[in-house]
Amino acid sequence: MRSADIEEVLAIERRVYAMPWTEGNFIDSLAAGYAAFVLRSAPVVRAPRSQMLGYFLAMKGVDEMHLLNLSVAPESQGGGLARLMLDALCGLCREQACAQLWLEVRVGNERARAVYRRYGFVEMGLRRAYYPVAEGPREDAVLMSLAVPP
């Protein structure tokens, strides 16, 4: 992901989440050097550029990686793209000697939780009042972890 991609990333982000990341969140993540990748369709002859299908951002720790955001455009969901991006992220973990991959996901996002469980993530705990909501109390997050084999 480059700063030139942020406009397209935000277009997906705003369609996927009720409480999307801001442009500043993405700019700060790139400035901090977080792993940030976009997934695009194959170029088409008549299209000036390929279509953005999804993206992910992750932060490296000492010997672990923390997935901060993984999103697939709504019209592209259900086709295995999240799995493809998780494969790429696990490859990055191996390259950088990260044995563990962590993430938080909204308690109410059962679809994403199911994707992560099918991939092999294990639910490790709960972060109370982790996510903001438009109205009412903050939403809990499920903490999930995946052991990444070398």
Could you describe the 3D structure shown?
The protein is an alpha+beta fold and 150 residues long. The chain has a single domain, classed as Aminopeptidase. It has four helices and six strands; from the N terminus they run ααβββαβαββ. It has helices spanning 6-16, 23-31, 81-95, 110-119, and strands at residues 35-40, 52-60, 64-72, 100-106, 122-131, 139-147. The radius of gyration is 15 Å and the shape is globular. The two termini are 26 Å apart.
Number of structural domains: 1
Report helical residue fraction. 25-40%
Give the strand tally. 6
Strand order of the largest sheet: 1-2-3-4-6-5
Overall pLDDT: 94
List SSEs in N-to-C order: HHEEEHEHEE
Strand proportion: 25-35%
> Whole-number radius of gyration?
15 Å
Question: How would a textbook summarize the main sheet?
Answer: 6 strands, mixed
| Total count of helical runs of at least 4 residues | 4
Identify the CATH homologous superfamily.
Answer: Gcn5-related N-acetyltransferase (GNAT)
Q: Please state the overall shape, judged from the principal axes of the Cα atoms.
A: globular
Low-confidence residue ranges: none
N- to C-terminal distance: 26 Å
Q: Under the CATH scheme, which class? A: Alpha Beta
According to CATH, what is the topology?
Answer: Aminopeptidase
**Which structural class do you get from the secondary structure elements?**
alpha+beta
Assigned CATH architecture? 3-Layer(aba) Sandwich
